[in-house]
Amino acid sequence: MTFRELLLQLVFPWMLMSISLYYGLVTVVKLLLALDLATLTSWDKFNEAWFGNFWVYMGPVSKEGAEAWVRPLLEGRVRQGDICQTVQHPVEGTVLEIGAGSGMWMDVLAQVTASSGKATKVYGVEPNPISAAALRRKVDELGMQGRYEVLPYGIEDLQAKADMQPGSVDCIVTVQCLCSIPEPDKNIRLLYEYLKPGGRWYVYEHVKAEEGLLVPAYQRFSNFFWTFFMGSCSMCRSTRSSILSVGSWRAVDLERRVDEGPLSVIPHTMGTLQKA
Ligand SMILES: C[S@@+](CC[C@H](N)C(=O)[O-])C[C@H]1O[C@@H](n2cnc3c(N)ncnc32)[C@H](O)[C@@H]1O
Fold first, then answer.
1. What is the pLDDT of residues 77-130, one digit of tens each?
2. Dihedral sign of CA atoms 175, 176, 181, 184 in order
3. Which of 28, 128, 141, 192 could form a disulfide with 246 if both were Cys (CB 3.0 to 4.6 A apart)?
4. Pocket probe mutation, ligand 1, options 67, 155, 180, 229, max atoms within 8 Å of Cβ
5. H-run or E-run covering 155
6. Residue 128: CATH number of its domain
7. How far is the CA of 246 from the centre of ligand 1 (A)?
8. Would residue 163 count as lying in a domain?
């Protein structure tokens, strides 16, 4: 890693927080103009509106950085944190896209599932009202009616509000969202239970830095501010071990992204797991 690349690693979280701060101010102005005092005076509601507005801008930027990895992942072309040419098990069947945001992966899911040749229905699970509204617009824009259904709830409400049954899902897709869900261990367990035996989970998540002393310490320090600026997101989740320990798996291929070294401040784990 060159000095310039290292500097970029260190500055990157702060660049994102600065952009988020700008969208915080935009959100205050929007709410004042709409005289929406109920949202302005509730931290939870304001935070939700802030992140929703931020992600309308940030979603496409984040997609640009991640698509080179997420597309092959959904196509079934990722092994050991790297991309390969042989296709094995693309996303298909009944699919839960968790934390679908503003629908950044809907076009990729549409292309991948169309080429699999199997009947597919994707449920986009997204509790943020601004993001869920953007997700619905995306369904219309891409003509995905009947193939993509928006569920405007959190994971924790899927059974009660959407009548989602345990053991009913072929594939789960989580792209940069397990960093943001509440009670990660409990909700990851709920997701595991929704998978059918033999069902597959496609993961692309940023995780806790754990190699050496300096980078983890710097990540923990940045995270102190990050959790204020980035909605419910945390930089320091041990998502890989949370998923591995949730139940038994027939096959696990969940590794660090091969191009990211120990100096990465926002490292990713990626790959697929198949439920036993
Ligand atoms: C960083 S955004 C990523 C969005 C999208 N996956 C993408 O890559 O553009 C994380 C998303 O997780 C969602 N989220 C937060 N809590 C959740 C919950 N309990 N259940 C499902 N999604 C949740 C947030 O609303 C947000 O849209």
1. 999 999 999 999 999 999 999 999 999 999 999 999 988 778 789 999 999 999
2. positive
3. 192
4. 180
5. none
6. 3.40.50.150
7. 20
8. yes
